[in-house]
Amino acid sequence: PLPDRDRALGPSHQQDQSVYEERHLRYISPLGKGNFGSVELCRYDPLGDNTGELIAVKKLQPNKQSNLEDFQKEINTIRSLHCDYIVKYRGVCYSMGRLSMSLVMEYLPYGSLIRYLEKNRQHVNNRRMLLFASQICKGLEYLQSMRYVHRDLAARNILVASDTLVKIADFGLTKIIPFDKEYYRVTHPGESPIFWYAPESITESKFSHKSDVWSFGVVLHELFSYCEHNCNPKRLYMQEIGNDMQGLSISMHLVDILKDNWRLPAPPICPPRIYSMMTMCWGYSAEERPTFSTLGDQIETSIQD
Ligand SMILES: N#CCCn1cc(-c2nc(Nc3ccc(C4CCNCC4)cc3)nc3c2CCN3)cn1
Q1: Quick one: three-class SS letters along the chain?
Q2: Catalytic one of 152, 163, 180, 260
Q3: Is the dihedral angle over the CA atoms 2, 6, 12, 14 positive or is it negative?
Q4: For residue 28, how far is its CA from the centre of ligand 1 (angstroms)?
Q5: Integer Cα distance of 110 and 162 in angstroms
Q6: How do residues 40-52 score in pLDDT, each as one tens digit?
């Protein structure tokens, strides 16, 4: 695309959608897998001299679930979001040959929060964690203001831009709440990340801002557990449920222990006030859970102390 200074700004000064030409895209390495797609590191190098910018390119995975329509929705979603705490849309790349298209986004050099915390555990203290938590909370508050429900909030979908900035990514499951309802009901649950799901999402496929609050509580748990894999949510829940469970009954057992008020245990060195914030996010019924603005205020207060 044209550098910003030369880009013709439309009347609304809305940046026009940038189209990246496939012939200038240089594949570098794989970055990860999201919902319905894989993400690759590329350099967009129209001058052919390796001075081009690094970008993250999400390609549609041609498999049964994903289809171009869902991908188009994901592109329209991320294109409509303008927030410092949400990964930035850069444009699309059409590959006519394969009649498919790719989503071009800003490249975040540090990768997912899980990997970052595993590698940088020694110099990330509680204050830094609270900064990350507050940024995720602000991003979610913005998403809510746009009537979007993310539906796949987890540390694996939080990306690290720098030592002091994280961003929400992967809008493959994001839905818009209809104007006349408080929730979105999903017809095809697909492979659901049930250990990050609120009870009503498991039992009734109902998703709302309050179910995103539940998942935010699980992300707080991952954060303050430094994303240690031996205390990740799935592992802790399966220990409680009993590892000998299979298939459908796992989600029913999960809902049962949640009904009995069992919750993920406090991470080893988690401040009591933060753990109580998590347990508030895990109110069994949606209306018990706090709003993102309340959570944001509580996190800010904790940062001041
Ligand atoms: N979310 C979500 C799930 C889908 N997904 C999205 C991305 C993604 N990754 C990055 N950056 C990134 C990623 C991995 C590394 C690792 C790679 C292995 N070697 C060590 C370093 C480094 C940097 N930047 C992005 C994106 C999307 C927009 N910008 C990756 N998977």
Answers
A1: CCCHHHCCCCCCCCCCCCEEEHHHEEEEEEEEEECCEEEEEEEECCCCCCCCEEEEEEEECCCCCCCHHHHHHHHHHHHCCCCCCECCEEEEEEEHHHCEEEEEEECCCCCEHHHHHHHHHHHCCHHHHHHHHHHHHHHHHHHHHCCEECCCCCHHHEEEEECCEEEECCCCCCEECCCCCCCEECCCCCCCCHHHCCHHHHHHCEECHHHHHHHHHHHHHHHHCCCCHHHCHHHHHHHHHCCCCCCHHHHHHHHHHHHCCCCCCCCCCCCHHHHHHHHHHCCCCHHHCCCHHHHHHHHHHHHHC
A2: 152
A3: positive
A4: 13
A5: 7
A6: 999 999 999 999 9
CA 177 to chain centre: 17
- The answer, as to whether pTM is greater than 0.80, is yes
Buried-state track 156-191, b at ≥16 Cβ within 10 A, e below 16: bbbbbbeeeebbbbbbbbbbebeeeeebbebeeeee
Residue 256 appears among annotated catalytic residues: no
Which residue has tokens 């809305």? 14
147, 263, 292 from 179: Cα distances, Å: 8, 33, 19
Q: Which has the closest alpha carbon to 270: 217, 229, 234?
A: 217
Task: Quick: pLDDT tens for 144-189.
Answer: 999 999 999 999 999 999 999 999 999 988 999 999 999 999 887 6
What is the distance in A from the centroid of ligand 1 to the CA of 50?
Answer: 21
The tokens describing 143, both together, are 């998403």
Structure tokens at 3: 């550098």
The two tokens of residue 189 are: 């649950």
Question: Does ipTM top 0.90?
Answer: yes
Distance from the alpha carbon of residue 108 to the mean position of ligand 1, in angstroms: 7
